[in-house]
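Record type: ASSEMBLY
Status: queued
Input:
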Amino acid sequence: MSRPPILSVRNLRTSFFAQRGEVQAVRGVSFDVAPGEILGIVGESGSGKSITCMSILRLLKSTGRIVDGQAIFDGQDLMELDENAMADLRGNDIGMIFQDPMTSLNPTLSVGEQVVETIIRHRRISRAEARKRAIELFELVRIPSAAQRLKSFPHEFSGGMRQRVMIAMALSCDPKLLIADEPTTALDVTIQRQILLLLKQLQNRLGMAVILITHDLGVIAEVTDRIVVMYGGMVMEQGSVTELFAHPRHPYTQGLLRSVPDLRDGEHTRLTPIAGTPPDMIQPPPGCPFAPRCVHAMKQCDIAIPPLYPMAEASDQTARCWLHHAQAPRVAGVNAPTAEVA
Amino acid sequence: MNPEPIIAPSMWEKPDRSTTAGEAIATPSLTYWQDVRQRLWANKPAVISIGFIVVLILAAIFGPLISPFSYFEQNLRLSNIPPVFETYRVSDDTGNNTRFFLNASNFNLYQVSEGGQVEGLLRGGRKDILKKRQGFEFGNTDIVLDYSSRPARLLRADGTTLRPEGWQWNMTYVFGTDQLGRDVLVRQLYGARISLLVAFVATLVNFFIGIFYGGIAGYIGGKTDAVMMRIVEIISTIPLMLYVILLMVVLNSGLISIVVAIGSVFWVDMARMVRGQILTLKQQDYVAAARTMGAGTGRILTRHLLPNSIGPILVTLTMLIPSAIFIESFMSFIGLGVTPPMASWGTLTSEAVETMRAYPHQLFFPAAAISLTMFAFNFLGDGLRDALDPRMRR
Amino acid sequence: MAGYVLQRLGQMLLTLLAIATLTFFLMHAIPGGPFVSERMLAPEIATALNDKFGLNDPIWLQYLNYLRGILTFDLGPSFRYPGVTVNEMIADGLPVTLRTGVLAVICVVALGVPMGIVAALNRNKWPDTAVMMLATIGVAIPSYVIATILLYVFALRLGWVPTFGLDDWRGYILPVFALSGFWISFVARLARSSLLETFEQDYMTTARAKGLRPGQVLFKHGLRNSLIPVVTVLGPVVANLITGSFVIEQIFALPGIGRHFVLSITNRDYTAIMGITIFYAALLMVMILIVDLLYVWLDPRIKLRKTAQ
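Status: finished
Output:
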């Protein structure tokens, strides 16, 4: 990365304090987002990917607490800001889109009002000007007859249209960073593509950085530049999309890729699910969180968490796996980038 | 790059996965009702409430049988006696001790035994109405009751004031007596009997009508449902209390009338709830699944619909009982409830309001009884709802 | 909107008709009731009743006469007091009942909702515990018990307020509080749980993610949505304040409609019972209509559902 990152998350730890004990949802996550890039965060549910992003914006529910770490945005550590400064930043410098557009919009306020209030909050302009801006935004996200639709209520929209409203709202103050938390999961498959392409186009046009959280590898492959793979509250592997898809260097990433249907492979390939269930985050395993489900697991994996090993072959790729230790036995597919995936 | 730690070669071997499956189930799985019971027992207010209700029911059933007094037996000479009093002691020349207390509101002296038993009214001389004095003789000792100024005083012959010797619990009438000299405790227990009886019977009637009406509306659905629910809507537009009052006016006061009146009106909530339950449950996927697998109407009704609506029904029932108690006491309070000498908490309270200024104890006991009972049923209902709520289930 | 109101008014009339019919036939069933011509009554009352209802006419004609009376706001003569009409009784008591009733509704909203908000914002801290304890007491203890206790403590023992009458503003304190106590508690509990549920909603997170200030998030996004269930119970609140007033007016000796009603019941003043019941029902339905309109205004989703039907 040549340019300095716009957001730099360092060793983020977030826990939820439930009656049964401390749930360690995020355990030391670090990654960078470069200006103008789309970073994808992948992982199954419970991997900590959403919590990571909610922690960056400090939007955790009451039982959640950021235990440690930094999130440097534009030279400031977001964790150090006071609540007022943080509120000034939310929706203004960092926009956010949520998973379910059905529940993320307030049902009792018109969609226009919900966009306008965001603009008025962060810009010193009149209500009339804000309305004008809202209409522009609705046109930008291609909501037909934008001016009239401003008065409508969320329940009068379809799911896809609601998500467009959410996007318009998130973009209303020209944020430098947009965080999209599974923006297409709750939508119909045909609508999913439309929304994704819209996001991609808007990103191209407006030049902001985007963090796209998803569990859908197809989505990732289509729009992102770089990927962070999360599991058990940790980053397992990260790298550029092309490298990571071509040469996944972590058994978990490999497992993920194998569990996705690929139409190009023809009809005879079998999908291989990853056996087992994600770890209990109240008592996470002392070693690699993926070890209990890993086909290559070794004794070492059960006692210590591996560091992120940089890959010699790819400049920007790192993988958290003991197999990359200098003394570790070599496994085809994991260690050798050119080998066939077993 | 950080320096690579040196790791023993044995660590690169495959781990032994035979013992730890990694998927050990931490808690033993419980059936739904075991789970409910466990949660209910963990809820302290609910448990205490259950205890209170059981004790109350037992006391209501057996209390009047054990008591030496009956709820209708009057003793006007011993009316309005408080549950606690300050006793005085006077000795005459023969060494006889007389222990007695002064009822500060009706200016009577009552003799009390050493054990705190009320033995009777003390006869004094003529009341001097003008000077507001009355003389009492204890052998050769004279005592004058002076009630010309409040509080009333007892004066010795030499003009000094007689001092009370201390507080004494009323051991004969533990809760005191009412204005007709009836034992408050036994009337209290008898009132509990009537109030609880009305509440339980009325709730049961409501329960059956409600289940029947709501069940039919919900199960048949369509036009029948629409018409039946419109009727319920009309009934519930005006306060149900008005219907009860109208019915009581027509039926005349009495125990049976009030049960009929409450029972015939308050089923609408139950009907609505049952219908709603049946309607939502009918649309549940598991019912559809059962139907797809060939289960008949009877099986669906008994295996799927009823067990799943029993929770809300139970909660509604628990909540109906206190409102029935409340309505009965309310009706009795405005003079439309049970007729004297029968007592319910409502009539006891309304009788006590008349004498509230002088004898607050008569108000205290029925008010406390009804409040505590309402508390108990409310807590129990809340506890049940929390215990049954499947959303709280892990 | 106009169509909806018209439809509701039609429904109201229908309901009123049902109530009037029920009342009429119930009263007709009473031996010695108002619709029997042979009784021992003051001649003046007997004549008035006969003039009004035509007691020797067939029953359906009496029924129609009675309905016509209701439609022309003429509820007939009293069954007990010569020369007094039910209309006069209502007119006599209405100001007192309305004043205490409106004050009670204001108390319910002005105390209950803020109590709920304070409790929800301080969940599981002492203000929450305190509010919930008060609310539990208020919900469990019947209004007439609260009324008598208040009367005993504040009027008889402490002498801070008069024991009866409404000669000055202090006379209103106890009746209004006794009347609204239950509903203040109920609304506080409801507002609390409703707010807590609203806090968990996704759109609250959205509002925060947009950078809205905490006050905006709470009042604009949270409160409006959580007030919807509170508004739905306001209809029943009005209804229950009215029935509550029977006893409260009795205990505090307030000359309101409720006292007239209870007196009519003890006197078996059948025409007054009938008339006041109908008046209550009509009053209530107007109140419920108002609450429903408020509800539609608060929750735009309702409109769609109504027009779709």
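Annotation: The mean pLDDT of chain A is 85.
Annotation: Residues 121 and 326 of chain A are 54 Å apart (CA to CA).
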